[in-house]
């Protein structure tokens, strides 16, 4: 299957700082990227959907000014957690989908474990 | 709205045991159903899927049958191995969805030698 690379895999940051997570599709052009968040022992929650070249669509309850998503090219999307706080500590996963179509599979990155201290 | 419920883990089995991880769903219309697996330290991988009622998805010895009458998509494997230890997620995509998945909480599977 296609490869999606997410970086970094783990990051520890101080409260009040910002952290950027990158998601790259290595062998296909990702027209749509999804960002998920996973709390311990809970399911994945979709945070936002981004299409290349347009603003991300955020799910209800997700602060767009806190979780900045940029999908500047067909192979790269970034999630920036601004002014991070301990409650932002979580596991973040991106997924990328190629050409449009309801049955086109989305491929997942490895995930990023964020710890805010 | 659409939702997925899967059995709570962890599930601990001995090698070569029979595995069942239950997954039930609520959805309008005709959703597609998926099982994803997350091995330690890795991202999610699609394990198998079924797109219509009575379809059976299978991969790596795992099987799941889309049962509309019981709204279930239980994951089964006849003989598990230590290498199957992972977290398994059941998910659905609504028939009106732009590939936005609704996820179960995940079930951690531990296989002991």
Folded structure, characterized:
The complex is a heterodimer of chains A (117) and B (113). Chain A is mainly beta. Chain A contains no helices and 11 strands. Chain B is mostly beta strands and 113 residues long. Chain B contains no helices and 12 strands. Chains A and B meet through strand 5 and strand 9 of A and strand 6 of B.
Poorly predicted ranges of chain A? none
Strand-pairing-aware structural class of chain B: mainly beta
Distance between the first and last residues' Cα of chain B: 41 Å
Greatest interface: A-B, 25 and 21 residues
Return the string of H and E elements of chain A.
EEEEEEEEEEE
N-to-C order of helices and strands of chain B: EEEEEEEEEEEE
SS class of chain A = mainly beta
Compute the average pLDDT of chain B.
Answer: 91
* Oligomeric state of the chains present here: heterodimer
Number of helix segments of chain B? 0
Radius of gyration of chain B equals 13 Å
Alpha carbon gap, first and last residue of chain A: 36 Å
Shape of chain A: globular
**What fraction strand of chain A?**
over 45%
Count of beta strands of chain B = 12
Main beta sheet of chain B: 6 strands, mixed
What amount of the residues of chain B lies in strands? over 45%
Q: How many beta-strand runs of chain A? A: 11
């Amino acid at each position: 299957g296609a490869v999606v690379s997410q970086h970094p895999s783990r990051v520890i940051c101080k409260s009040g700082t910002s952290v950027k997570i990158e998601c790259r599709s290595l062998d296909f052009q990702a027209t749509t990227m999804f960002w998920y968040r996973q709390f311990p022992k809970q399911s994945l929650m979709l945070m936002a959907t981004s299409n290349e070249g347009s603003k991300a669509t955020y799910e209800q309850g997700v602060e767009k000014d806190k979780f900045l998503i940029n999908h500047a090219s067909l192979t790269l999307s970034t999630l920036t957690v601004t002014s991070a706080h301990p409650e932002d500590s979580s596991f973040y996963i991106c997924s990328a989908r190629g050409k449009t179509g309801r049955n086109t599979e989305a491929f997942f990155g490895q995930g990023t474990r964020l710890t805010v201290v | 709205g659409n939702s997925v419920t899967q059995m709570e883990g962890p599930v601990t089995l001995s090698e070569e045991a029979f595995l069942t991880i239950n997954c039930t769903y609520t959805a309008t219309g005709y959703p597609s159903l998926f099982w994803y697996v997350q091995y330690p330290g890795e991202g999610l991988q699609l394990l198998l899927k079924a797109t219509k009622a009575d379809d059976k998805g299978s991969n790596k010895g795992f099987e799941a049958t889309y049962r509309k009458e019981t709204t279930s998509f239980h994951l089964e494997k006849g003989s598990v191995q230590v290498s199957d230890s992972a977290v398994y997620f059941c998910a659905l995509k609504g028939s009106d969805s732009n590939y936005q998945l609704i996820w179960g909480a995940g079930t951690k599977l531990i296989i002991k030698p």
